[in-house]
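User: Working on a comparison across species. This one is Acetolactate synthase III large subunit from Roseibium aggregatum. Can you predict its structure so I can line it up against the others?
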Amino acid sequence: MSEDQYTKEQLEFLEIFEIAARYDCLFLLDFHCFDLFDHDQTSLLSDGERSQLAAAARYDIYAEAIQKGFLPKSSPFGGVHEQQRFC
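Assistant: Here's the predicted structure for Acetolactate synthase III large subunit from Roseibium aggregatum:
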């Protein structure tokens, strides 16, 4: 399937899920899922809830993944992608 066949909400979650899986950070998705929804079953969430989960877990997953070698994509102008933030 191509990206245009997914909704924005689905893509937001898939992006975070891929990074979490690749850099052994899925436990952070489970943690934030439990924190938000009182369970850790991301497969039971709606697309909107998954998008909410992605937003809540994004910072922690990026921080953990960067420690494990993840390099965020940069924009065409050399900056960090607009949705990625760092401390």
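For your comparison, note: The mean pLDDT is 88.

User: Helpful, thanks.
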